[in-house]
Amino acid sequence: MPINHKASMKMGNAMLTPTADRDQEMAYSSRNADGSCWRMNHLAKKTNLAGKLIFKSERWSNENDMRVVDIKYDEYALIHTKTKGVSAVLTNLYVYLVCHVLYRGTDLSPDLLQKFRQFSLDTGYPPQK
Fold first, then answer.
1. Is residue 1 part of a domain?
2. Whose CA is closest to 58, among 43, 79, 36?
3. At 99, which CATH number?
4. How many distinct structural domains can be found in the chain?
5. Predicted pLDDT at 6
6. Residues 37-55: pLDDT tens digits?
7. Percent residues over pLDDT 90 in the chain
8. Cα angle for residues 77, 79, 84 (degrees, 5° grid)
């Protein structure tokens, strides 16, 4: 059964930074409904499988399996995350903000949006109503 959070979701920021060891530092920030801000940081550790990283969320005390599905380093990253032990799955489309704002305004390419939609459908997300 899908859970609809669309009405409560806010645009946030994510900074994904590779480390010298090829792990991934992830810093997130967004707004709560009351206008206050929240921040969260994780260190995703690389695995032997290319594009797969794992991290533990200190905030929710859970382990996460993160896969980089597709990436164009100066434009976007399509990332799919599963939370171990909980039926939580998250698919994110991160857009490289400087490129996005300076060169394309606020519109994403139809091909990129279709790739995101198709991947979401292929991984079990219900179609948009």
1. no
2. 43
3. 2.40.128.20
4. 1
5. 53
6. 888 899 999 999 999 999 9
7. 22
8. 160
Long-range contacts of 60-66 (CB under 8 A, 24+ apart): 62/86, 62/88, 66/24
Alpha helices in 1-129 (DSSP H): 97-104, 110-122
User: For the chain, what is the radius of gyration of the CA atoms?
Assistant: 15
Residue 88 neighbours by CB under 8 Å, 6+ apart? 62, 82
- Parent domain of 60: 11-123
CA atoms within 13 A on the CB side of 15: 9
pTM: 0.71
* Residue 5 falls inside a structural domain: no
Judge residue 44's burial from the number of C-beta atoms within 10 Å of its C-beta, 0-12 exposed, 13-18 middle, 19 or more buried.
buried
**What is the rounded CA–CA span in Å between residue 17 and residue 94?**
13
